[in-house]
User: Fold this.
Amino acid sequence: MSKVFYDLYHGRYSAWERRPNRTDENRAVNRKIEDEKRYFSQKMSLDDFQRLIALENLYTDASDFEQVDAFTYGFKLGTTLMCAVYMSEDEPTPNSSH
Assistant:
């Protein structure tokens, strides 16, 4: 049995566990976000700033729903493609150009 199947069966893979994106561009964007939040926290009243943070959390929640939906669709599409390839009667041969 393939180690991948063994590890998948035993829960060693999780769709949510990914390598963090630690590129320079990612760090720069995150730094800008924190700078902007700091700016607004200093300019706004506490109540307004808390509402801004609540709005940010709503955007995060909406994004999470979209990511789950995209992951589910991608997984189903990938599985459908794998099934179509597996069920195909055209067996690949070493000399085929496909």
